[in-house]
Amino acid sequence: MLALLTWALLAFGVPMLAQALDLIDIFAFPLGYFMVAQGALIGFVVIGLASAHWQDRRDRRRLAGR
Amino acid sequence: MPLDGESAVSEKKPGVVVSAATAAGVGGVIVALLLAARLGALAAWGDGAYWAAGIGIAAVIALAAGLIGAGRAGPVLSGMSLVPSVVSGAFFVAIPGAVFALGYDGLSYALGIGAGCLLMQLLVAPRFAASGADSLPALLAMRFPGRMVAVVSGAIIAASMIVAATAGLMAAGLIGTRLLGIGFDAAVIAAACAVFACFIVRGEGDASIPNAMLYVLLLVALLVPLVIVSVQWFGLPVPQIAYANSLWQLQGIEEDLLGRDLADPAYMRPLMTAFLTMAPINFAGIVLALAAGVAALPNVLAAPLAQRPMREARHTALWVLGWCVLLLTLMPAAATYARQSIASLIADGATASDLPQWVFAYGKLGLVEVCERAATDAATVRAACSASLDASGALRLQDIAVNQDVVGFALPEIAGLDGGLTGLLAVAILAAVLVGLHAPINVVVRALGIDAAAGAEDGSRGTRIASYVIAATIIVAGAVLAMQRLAPIIDIATGSLAFVAAGLFPALVGALWWPRANAWGASAAMLAGAGFMLLYFAGQHYFAVPFVEATSALSSGGSNGLEYFTELKDAWLAAEPGAEKLAAWAALDAHARSMADWWGIGGAATVLLALPVGFVALVVVSLLTGDPRKGTSP
Q1: Residues in chain B within 8 Å Cβ distance of A43
Q2: Cys staple from B144: which of B323, B379, B519, B532, with CB 3.0 to 4.6 Å?
Q3: Mean pLDDT, 10 residues at a time, chain A of 66 residues
Q4: Shared-domain flag, residues B134 and B221
Q5: Tens digits of residue pLDDT in B255-303
Q6: CA distance B18 to B356
Q7: What would the DSSP string read from start to end of B56-80?
Q8: Do A7 and B115 touch (CB under 8 A)?
Q9: Do B283 and A47 touch (CB under 8 A)?
Q10: What is the number of other CB atoms lying within 10 angstroms of the CB of residue B627?
Q11: What average pLDDT does the segment B367-392 reach?
């Protein structure tokens, strides 16, 4: 659920705020552009990793609980 | 699974050998092509060699897939092998082009595909794997028994996959015209024949490793030119970071051009400025369309994800996401380098007489226009520009118009690198299209109820022939549509995914997550979602006037637009029959089309409206009809 919320925020929230975020620079990119071109995608991978980790742990616990 | 456990073991050994041989072969071709590029062999061999190499690689991959048998790759390789289905050859060409043409707004396509991979991992892949179904049609049939769901989903899958084939064949056709110098239509037909041949020779074995090789080929072909440009221009071998410099330099050059009157402000589309070409709501709509489309993509929900432990499917999907992101983050860099090359050309004071060779190479194909005429040779350009330019003859930024569809593979030439690198990109894209179209065609064959694997096993010729007929129908339909060149490739490829999203996503989510969903609800969801997409599209493009009249309150035109609409309508009603009436209707229709929308939503972004419609239909109809768990529903 948390993963889906973060997903929605990155996919839909961040692009809308591009103009505001552009005021800050990161790696020489304006932040808004960077977030949409790369940051959000990297964020997806992080969510994916974290979620896979949590799900695996939950599955293991469930198996152990049986 | 066609093979039982024992024979799978015995098959394993040749599988490993064939995989290794394929890997070595494809790797060898990459190295050979890179060497050829260094030696400048492009001119010596003729560009046709690259075309042949693309076909050859596709054939090798298709054949290898048949030989390997039912082996299984781990999540890393399985994930890699699915990327060419998600980022198809068409998207691979089209996304750099979209960023090139639309700037920031073009990033929505890359963002949407990445978002889709994550959505697939979170919502779809694990439960799909646990369901025991081996394809999306099989899952729907298992969860919603009965003919109705099978027919509706089959129709939606067939329609969307035909559109996907159209986009792929357009990409292959463009590459064919560039490499072979033949007409676009002929190149599309040649590519279509090659796709069909690949479909026939391909076996039903596990294609993970050959497809993973295809990904490596795509990645190398895009990475090599970008790394070279990054090092040459900025001394930094990581394109994803180096192109930040290019963004700023491009901005500087464009401002300089404006100052020197070499660029028209009306034509300027600064790469970093958001929402120049589309409203924010349409940006979000494209992201949603691609995300839901990728998550429900029938040709991805196939063997590498099916019938596995949930954990394995989850990690495979995670790797799909990771490999996709690696590819997607490179694409804006390609677009930026191409833009900067062209802007520098103008800033250096290029005239009609000293344009680089690539302008004419693509100009001959009608893909580059200089001074609003196809740049076939220097004389044509001089003639076209003599009227519009001042005495110095310096070209302006708006005078060079590069078709966005070629940027994805012409980048090396545009950036002044060796033409052989374009050849490598062309080979990779061609192979990706030819091999990649197998999965969409195959899933239609499955959706229409023909099990090609079973046919191959019991040797029933009827099944095989039926599958060939379906494949041929899809390819011919795709080729005919491709020849129309209705829109840039990106719009066609996105349209295919948008239709998948609107038609299949709600039913798929219902099948996996909501036990109460039944066949009536799933059919209603599919019909409502896909039907809404089609009706809205038809209303916007063909019935704009009634569309505006019926839903004027929701239109983005506002009260001014509506007032003007009423004015034009009165003029049309009052006009005398004949030419005057027709002219009045044309004006009315044109204005109606500009405001025939709800909240400004249009194109693929219609998914923003179609998805809720589909989900509502799923819930309402499921609740009104029987509970499938009690066995009272069909």
Answers
A1: none
A2: B519
A3: 75 71 68 82 89 86 77
A4: yes
A5: 888 888 888 877 778 887 778 788 888 889 999 999 999 999 888 887 7
A6: 44
A7: HHHHHHHHHHHHH-S----HHHHHH
A8: yes
A9: no
A10: 14
A11: 82
Please give the residue range of the domain that contains residue A44. 2-65
Contact between B115 and A51 using a beta-carbon 8 Å cutoff: no
B359 and B329 assigned to the same domain: no
The whole-angstrom distance between A28's CA and the closest CA on chain B is: 6
Give the CATH number, domain containing residue B145: 1.20.1730.10
Mean pLDDT, chain B, whole residue set: 83
Task: Report which of B465, B455, B429 is spatially closest to residue B203, judged by C-alpha positions.
Answer: B455
| Chain B contact present for A47, CB below 8 A | yes
By residue count, chain B amounts to 634
Q: Which residue of B has its CA nearest to A45?
A: B322
A20–B contact, CB cutoff 8 A: no
**Residues forming a β-bridge with A26:** A29
Same domain, B17 and B66: yes
Q: Can you give the three-state secondary structure of B416-449, one letter per residue?
A: CCCHHHHHHHHHHHHHHHHHHCHHHHHHHHHHCC
Give the angle subtended at the CA of A15 by the CAs of A9 and A19, to the nearest 5°: 130
**Which residues in B have their CB inside 8 Å of a CB on A?**
104, 107-108, 110-112, 114-115, 117-119, 121-123, 126, 240-241, 244-245, 247-248, 271-272, 274-275, 280, 283-284, 287-288, 291, 310-311, 314-315, 317-318, 321-322, 325, 328-329, 332
Q: Please tell me the distance in Å from B146's CA to the nearest CA on chain A.
A: 33
Question: Inter-chain contact B111–A4, Cβ cutoff 8 Å?
Answer: no
Is the CB of residue B499 less than 8 Å from the CB of residue B94? no
Average pLDDT over residues B174-189: 88
**What ipTM does the predicted assembly reach?**
0.88
Q: Do both B324 and B364 map to the same domain? A: no
Tell me the count of A-B CB pairs closer than 8 A. 106
Q: Nearest-CA distance from A54 to chain B in Å?
A: 11
Q: Please provide residue B373's backbone torsions phi and psi, each rounded to the nearest 5 degrees.
A: -135, 145
Q: Is the distance from CB of B363 to CB of B347 less than 8 angstroms?
A: no
Residues B53 and B154 reside in one and the same domain: yes
Dist CA B439 CA B548 (whole Å): 40
Q: Which tokens go with B628?
A: 């499938």
Q: Are residues B478 and B573 in the same domain?
A: no
Claim to verify: residue B329 and residue B379 sit in the same structural domain: no
pLDDT in tens, B80-102: 888 888 899 999 999 999 999 99
Beta bridge mates, B598: B601
- β-pair partners for B400: B370
Quick check: B104 and A16 CB within 8 A? no
pLDDT at B325 over 80: yes
pLDDT in the model for residue B528: 94
pLDDT digits (tens, 9 = 90+) for B480-500: 999 988 889 999 999 999 999
Is it the case that residue B2 has pLDDT exceeding 70? no
User: Is the pLDDT confidence value at B6 over 50?
Assistant: no
Query: CB A11 to CB B115 under 8 A?
Result: yes
Q: How many domains does chain B have?
A: 3
- Judge whether residue B219 has pLDDT over 80: yes
More confident residue, A16 or B123: B123
From CA B486, how far away is CA B469, in angstroms rounded?
A: 26
**For chain A, how many structural domains are there in total?**
1
Structural domain for B59, as ranges = 5-337+410-493
- Regarding whether B434 and B560 lie in a shared domain, the answer is no
| A19 touches B: beta carbon within 8 Å | yes
